[in-house]
Write a structure and sequence with these properties.
Length: 67
């Protein structure tokens, strides 16, 4: 699914795919510390980790490229 979305994003203007997969894993498996008990959705720590360490950095880099 991610590869399909990534390919689609490459064809769009002003849309960029941010792959968070490696940031969700620990030793190749889902990092339980970042997930709710359903092991599918992020908990608060997971959302904070992904947004601060992945998404925010990517957005800042993109804005620097525009300015």
């Amino acid at each position: 699914c991610n590869n399909t979305v990534k390919k689609w994003c490459k064809k769009q203007k002003q849309i960029e795919f941010i792959d968070i997969t490696k940031h969700c894993l620990r030793n190749g498996k889902p990092n339980k510390k970042l997930l709710m008990s359903d092991k599918l959705h992020f908990n608060n720590k997971g959302y904070n980790h992904i947004w601060k360490n992945v998404v925010a950095k990517k957005v800042k880099r993109q804005f620097k490229n525009i300015a």
